[in-house]
Amino acid sequence: MRANVVASQIKLHQQYGGVYPSLAKREHAKNLPFALEKALKHAKLSRKNPGISALAVTAGPGLDPCLWTGITMTQNIASQWNLPIIPVNHVEGHLLMSLFSQGKTLKVPPKSVFPLIALIVSGGHTQLILSKSLGKYSILGETRDDAAGECFDKTARILGLPYPGGPAVAATAALAGKPANVFSKPNLPRPMIRTKDYDFSFSGLKTAVLYDWQSRTQKVRESQEYIATMAKEIQQSIIDVLVAKTSRAVQQYQAKSLVLGGGVAANKELRTQLQKELAQQTPKPAFFAAPPKLCTDNGLMIALAGYVHQNAKTKDIQAIAAKPHLKIQ
Ligand code: KG4
Ligand code: ZN
User: 23: burial class by Cβ within 10 Å (0-12, 13-18, 19+)?
Assistant: First the structure.
């Protein structure tokens, strides 16, 4: 399987500093037919008879109007090509993308990877999931407010960094040196790091960043040094919380593997620090993460979820509906 970017809304959302549902829906509707043409051409499939056996589409979770745009289009193609549809879960797509990734190739994982813990971190989700077999899950904990990616995006905006905030904060953090004594060192919280549950909360971190920024003079706020120091501290605060809770879950459930997925899983520091922490456990769990480009949203992860859930394919295509709050189970 190969992945290619056939359509992206990132440039558009950059102008507005985030994702707006009506805008995203309009763009999906505009881009999907072109994306389909491009994908078929690239895969050398004919439009008349593409020679495929089913179509997979995201049923949820997500923004209702965006989900419907994808579902309606899939229903249209399914009736044109007389194909069944497999409705899939977006979060599971991220999880499987990382679990099946072996460098640049994809492989069905052996049974020995279970039980596994998955940390799925994206713009909409922060979840710790336990899986004892392929396609079966229970959520151990999740964010009570903002998702980790959302926290990157919102704090980036405070600092005047572009959307999406995650890659911008990561790149800026890498520029941070030892801060000179021009301003006091920021001291950001690690929300819920010591609570016994597996839940997260990131909105307090965003507020702490705002308060710190407001307390600085304009000269400090606009200095490269302050922005880079804050970016590094924001990234480290998010990583500290994610690593501490994930490592505890792996230990408690004696997990054989840890799967890191979702857009935030593209973060190099998170990948490195999490692996370093897991390497200290005995026995050391296996670590799975998709290549960074396939951690952020892509069609391949949805195709993969469709492959795993072939049994769920249905010819009753009109019964497929958007489920904005769909939970992995
Ligand atoms: O999974 P995804 O592409 O879309 C959702 O399902 O939400 O995740 C997007 C999120 C954004 O919040 C973005 O800032 C974050 O992933 N992200 C990153 C990095 N690349 C993308 N966060 C931290 N470091 C990165 N390198
Ligand atoms: Zn996603």
Answer: middle
pTM, whole model, 2 decimals?
0.94
Q: Is 148 in the pocket of ligand 1 (CB under 6 A)?
A: no
Dump pLDDT digits (tens) for 211-265: 999 999 999 999 999 999 999 999 999 999 999 999 999 999 999 999 999 999 9
Tokens read off for 246: 């994930």
- Tokens encoding 104: 């640049």
Pocket test for ligand 1, best of 90, 121, 122 (most atoms within 8 A of CB): 122
3-state DSSP helix/strand/coil percent for the chain, to nearest 5?
50, 15, 35
Mean pLDDT, residues 108-133 taken together: 98
Give the span between the Cα atoms of 126 and 283, in whole angstroms: 26
In whole angstroms, what is the distance from residue 261 CA to residue 125 CA? 11
| 273-287 per-position pLDDT tens digit | 999 999 999 999 999
Token look-up 């490195």 returns: 272
Torsion angle (degrees, nearest 10) of CA 153, 116, 251, 142: 40
Ligand 1 atom closest to the CA of 156, numbered from 1: 14
Using one digit for the tens of pLDDT, what is the confidence trace for 146-188? 999 999 999 999 999 999 999 999 999 999 987 677 899 999 9
Cα(317) to centroid(ligand 2), Å: 24
How far does the centroid of ligand 1 lie from the alpha carbon of residue 44, in Å? Answer: 30
The amino acid occupying position 93 is G
Judge contact between 98 and 290, C-beta under 8 A: yes
3-state secondary structure of 109: coil
